[in-house]
Design goal:
Helices cover 33% and strands 23% of the residues. The strands form 3 sheets. Strands 7-1-2-8-9-10-11-12-13 form a 9-stranded mixed beta sheet. The chain has helices spanning 62-66, 91-95, 110-117, 121-127, 142-154, 169-178, 191-198, 203-215, 233-243, 261-267, 280-292; strands spanning 5-15, 23-28, 49-52, 72-75, 78-81, 101-104, 106-109, 130-134, 158-163, 181-185, 219-225, 249-256, 297-298.
Length: 299
């Protein structure tokens, strides 16, 4: 039987923001939401993509020399990537010494990923860390993620899943048996706002959150806060009501909007809308709403 493979965006060692302790975060490629403020837009597509960062390019011509398809040309204005001709083979990225061309996504086996994860087992043990599988949306590659978490748990490594839970309940039930904790994104409790800004309503998301809450799964909640979109008090009153009295909720993390995704979106040929960051007073107000319900917050 062939080994499970998955499309991996990146593996980040010594992560301290994706669960307890020092962790290795495995970012899977592909997401079934399309949040307009996404800070990792290169993780949305379930296919390999080529990223081009023109500000890094030195017009050395190495990319054009290895490209068989004429996807790279040079004009008086510099290097131009002709995406319609690009077959995403990645040879140009291999030749680029300045990281102006980069391949976004590569197919890896569970064994290959675990080779990296194992390198830091001593740090997991000393800090209470482990592996976090993130994305994109990792649960849409459940076969691979399941095999990865199963092997990690077999080796005594703490496991976490960072997810928006926009998947079928059957997958969530299976994930609850493999993960020691969940990091769950809540974009909005308003169905129409969620659909307008992410492409899907929150019906099954809320249902899956409530399922994991009732099951007693340990979790942290992450809330991206975008001014004029989901930074209203009513949204956080509903979040507080959902989480009130749930001892398995470790904390709610408020994540004020930043525009880091704009440049990365441009690197894959997309334009991303720029939003506004809520001011500190509004963030403090939202924190207070949660804390009145005895919910621990972090920002």
């Amino acid at each position: 039987m062939s080994e499970k493979t998955g499309l991996v965006l990146n593996i980040q060692r010594f992560s301290v923001h994706d669960g307890p302790g020092i962790r290795t975060t495995v970012f899977m490629k592909g997401c079934n939401l399309c949040c307009q403020w996404c800070h990792n837009p290169e993780s949305i597509s379930s296919s390999v993509e080529m990223q081009y960062f023109p500000e890094r390019c030195k017009s050395c011509g190495a990319c054009a020399q290895v490209c068989e398809y004429g996807a790279h040309t040079f004009t008086n204005d510099g290097h131009v990537l002709i995406r319609e001709k690009c077959v995403k083979c990645g040879r140009c990225a291999d030749e680029c010494n300045f990281e102006a061309m980069m391949t976004s996504g590569r197919t890896m086996t569970v064994t290959e990923v675990m080779e990296t994860v194992r390198k830091d087992k001593i740090y997991y043990k000393n800090s209470g860390g482990g592996i976090t599988v993130s994305g994109g949306e990792p649960l849409i590659q459940w076969g691979f993620v399941s095999a990865l978490l199963e092997l990690a748990k077999r080796e005594g490594i703490h496991t976490a899943i960072d997810t928006a839970l926009n998947v079928d309940e059957e997958i969530v039930k299976k994930a609850a048996k493999k993960a020691d904790m969940f990091l769950i994104d809540i974009k909005s409790t308003d169905r129409d706002i969620q659909k307008k800004y992410t492409g899907a309503d929150n019906t099954r998301i809320i249902k899956n959150i409530e399922y994991l809450l009732d099951l007693g799964c340990k979790m942290s909640i992450r809330c991206p806060v975008v001014k004029g979109v989901n930074d209203d008090s009513e949204n956080y009153e509903r979040i507080a009501k959902m989480l009130r009295g749930r001892e398995n909720v470790m904390r709610v993390e408020l994540l004020p909007y930043h525009n880091y995704g704009i440049q990365k979106a441009q690197s894959i040929g997309l334009n991303q809308t720029e939003f506004e960051t809520p001011d500190k007073n509004q963030i403090e107000l939202l924190k207070s709403i949660l804390e009145k319900s005895k919910i621990k917050t972090m920002r």
